[in-house]
Design brief:
Layout: E1 8-15, E2 19-23, E3 34-37, E4 40-48, E5 51-55, H1 58-63, E6 74-79, E7 98-108, E8 111-117, H2 120-123, E9 131-134, E10 137-144, E11 148-153, H3 155-159, E12 171-176, H4 178-189, H5 197-202
Antiparallel strand pairs: 1-2, 1-6, 2-5, 3-4, 3-6, 4-5, 7-8, 7-12, 8-11, 9-10, 9-12, 10-11
Length: 206
């Protein structure tokens, strides 16, 4: 479990279709720990001299942008949430739904307006003012726009994440809000009932 608040910009040291090694200034990473790499939850299999190595499956390779990374490219890193951590972003699982493509990046005064194109599977779980993780960054959707989402990025977020290296046309990992998925599942559980007080109580929401 993660928050979408990026802790470090790591540097890709080695990369293949199934394994990645990343240099990082983060401490406290041990073999077996979960680390979000551009939003994708990976398990460190070894740690050595300020770098960790993680394996990833063919399914992860297919869904995420990991294999398109290059040597020396920067990546967003976040260690797994602990019970004593503040949930400053939103609930992020590290399970990527798919890749989006940056359509627009433009500076508007101090802020950055970014439009990311998504496939229908991702758009269905996006709502105005809802949460989304883009390359692991917790962001708020300004509005849904032509099969995509509009985002306004504050300078602090833009300048301290991989967003500052992105250009129009770049692919990014997308994780939609887990709450939207659960809401859809429970609303379909009994189509005759729909969402009711009894259904919410029965499924532990109340």
């Amino acid at each position: 479990m993660f928050t979408g608040l990026i802790e470090d910009l790591g540097t890709v040291k080695r990369i293949s279709s199934s394994q990645i090694t990343i240099d990082t200034s983060l401490d406290g990473i041990s073999a077996g720990d979960s680390v979000a790499v551009n939003g994708a939850c990976l398990t460190a299999v070894s740690v050595n001299n300020g770098a960790f190595t993680a394996d990833y499956s063919p399914q992860t390779d297919k869904i995420t942008t990991l294999s398109s990374l290059k040597i020396n490219e920067k990546v967003n890193l976040e260690r797994a949430l602990t019970l004593s951590s503040r949930l400053g972003g939103h609930i992020v699982t590290g399970h990527i739904d798919g890749a989006g493509k940056i359509k627009t990046i433009e500076k508007q005064e101090r802020f950055y307006r970014v439009i990311v194109l998504l496939d229908d599977k991702c758009v269905r779980y996006c709502v105005d003012k809802g949460s989304v993780a883009v390359d692991g960054i917790s962001l708020t959707i300004s509005k849904i726009e032509n099969s995509g989402i509009e985002l306004f990025i504050i300078p602090e977020t833009f300048n301290n994440t991989v967003l500052k290296f992105k250009k129009e046309g770049c692919a990014v990992n997308i994780e939609t809000d887990i709450l939207a998925k659960y809401a859809e599942k429970f609303s379909k559980k009994d189509s005759s009932e729909g969402i009711s007080l009894e259904m919410l109580k029965g499924n532990g929401f109340i």
